[in-house]
């Protein structure tokens, strides 16, 4: 490796001594350019590059520190590493030189050839490291600016997309409501009335989900709206809706009698969690299979928990994918490409549960099915997310036991 050094010294004997010391460097090849004044150094550096500069402080006309200050003012693209040569007793000169940009200084009467070579190599390494750090900083700033611009574009696209998605939903809702009013009573059967009601409620629900999606992508997620609610009533309603729409599966709701399934929760958030778990159970299990929803109560003090199990007889989750099943955009390797999905539903569901101070876990065996377990504290107020893993396979108190399928 060859490094170019500019030697700035008006003393011929000093220039010869330094050139000889560098020529004998066993570890580095130095290409030495010599000038006798600061003005000549400025001219040279304006036309050539150098890795290092060995600079005598006492020069005719402009001294060494003034030269360093002039170089800084010129704003050259690559100022070399600088080692200043001073006379004995000139510590103040050395300090001024370091402030002006030098990396090291040597006292002429005291340094050895090895000390000279070591000082120059260290100065070059220091400058290179400084330049690399500055380049990394500039790259990081450019990447951050590009990311901010991309986020602005993303938010605009999401706003347009959600606006366009809500248009058809409004049309569906209005038409369903018009049909409910205009269909004669003699024609309007209870089943037809129920199905029209499902359409209206589903359209409203989809509008809420679109709004929630837009809020999350903008980092504007709303805080939970905790209110007393009966989890059993919500689950019962969702199961009935699925029985009317997902007719290819059998749905079973199991809950021990006489138990209390109420708590202070956000009904809309838990509805999204349940819809995701039930939707996955239907999506990843064959027609004719059973989807079981179980409720239980865990009375461990000091906090009482309500447990919700969603059990399917589907394709299951490979053991290698289980640790990552709640990560965004992760899908099991046994999922067919024909099965739609983005891989964000379970991550969102887990976040909703954790915001309640609860846990969402899974037990699964490939080709046998999966059991998703929601564990909700009845009214715990939390400001941080739990960091410990949820208990696996806990059975509801007073309810039926089960194992992963």
Automatic annotation (TrEMBL):
Signal sequence, renumbered to the chain: none
The name this protein goes by in its record: histidine kinase
Modified residues (4-aspartylphosphate): 56
Keyword Transferase: yes
Catalytic activity, EC: 2.7.13.3
Domain named Response regulatory: residues: 4-123
SMART domains: HATPase_c, HisKA, REC
GO MF terms held by the record: kinase activity
Pfam annotation, one family: Response_reg
CDD domains given in the database record: HATPase, HisKA, REC
